[in-house]
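Just curious: can you write a single protein's sequence together with how it folds?
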Amino acid sequence: MTDIVERYDIPEQHFWLRGPRSGQPVEYDARTGMWNVYGYPEAHDILADPTTFSSDTMRVLPKGLMPDSEEFSMNGFITQIDPPEHGKLRKLVSSAFTRKVVADLEPRIAALTHELLDAARERGRLELVTDLAYPLPVIVIAELLGVPSGDRALFKQWADALFQRDTTISLTEPVEEQTADVQATLKPWKEMSAYLAGHAEERRRRPRADLLTRLVEAEVDGEHLPDDQVVNFAIILLLAGHITTTMLLGNTVLCLDAFPEQQATVRADRASVPAVIEESLRLLPPFAALGRSTTRETELGGVTIPADQLVMVWLGAANRDPRQFADPGVFDPGRDPNPHLAFGRGIHFCLGAPLARLEGRVALNILLDRLDPLRTDPEDPVTFIPTPTMTGVARLPLV
């Protein structure tokens, strides 16, 4: 991984990409008041135990840091919900990502990939994120939801404002010193909520054959979902439905640029494309960290964590734990098995993982067909997203 760090000037906050780390697999950070988990078995145990490690992290944040529920509702935000409510809600959304639904999208994904690459060729340049890695998955998920894919510039504006900020919440700093950052994050969230609420209201009047209509008409325990729950479901699908693929595709191309011998191998054997994608997910997981809160005192990695603590699970570090992966810094698509945690584990395993993998496989095969070699532009450096908890390129110009 040192070669990638030096080659692309990866931001310093992506510490887990900068070679083996020293220290224990579980450490308390007095500066932020959080517990950091870096080890693979420890991360695996957390994701497998939602009873002890709750997804509801909002409950342990300092009072006053987040606005009240009338201004900012997390109702229906499935990544923050624990069982049994989580199971009921996930079942609703899972119907959008069945094996058949995802498989049937392959011809559309291929056609879109060719259209986007044709348009880039006419412009005489290819910047992978702007020209393909972003628009491809956002068009697909927008069409599934039933919102105008032509509004994708709006979606990108909101996603950038939410995810491309180098912001870290602290449990120890005064709330008033963090308010400005929180408000800056909430502004695009409110705008997106209002946008999707308008489309949801329109579906109540005029239903369509789309996912947003299914959410509006869905029932849990005999009752329709509340408005804010429908909107928050739609936000998750719109954001998570494209951001993961955008970063997955960019990161995979980056790995093939950095390791040309692996690019030659996958060109010769296209059956290895899925393995290349999995190894890029291990090395450069799109969501490098996620949060949990402890519901009781528990022991993890040889230390005792009290109840009601915020725990940051560093998937990026866990994915290169030498206790789990031999030569963890080596990009090796031949790893078998490759039980990385890029999509999580357990009940919160990424709903969109099958779609992201399909989009990545189809797009990468077409890129390999049309560009030989896949090579970054030495005159136009790669730019990384600065957010410490995410791994992805903001710009990736190709020759």
About this structure: The chain has one domain: 2-398. The first strand starts at residue 26 and ends at 29.
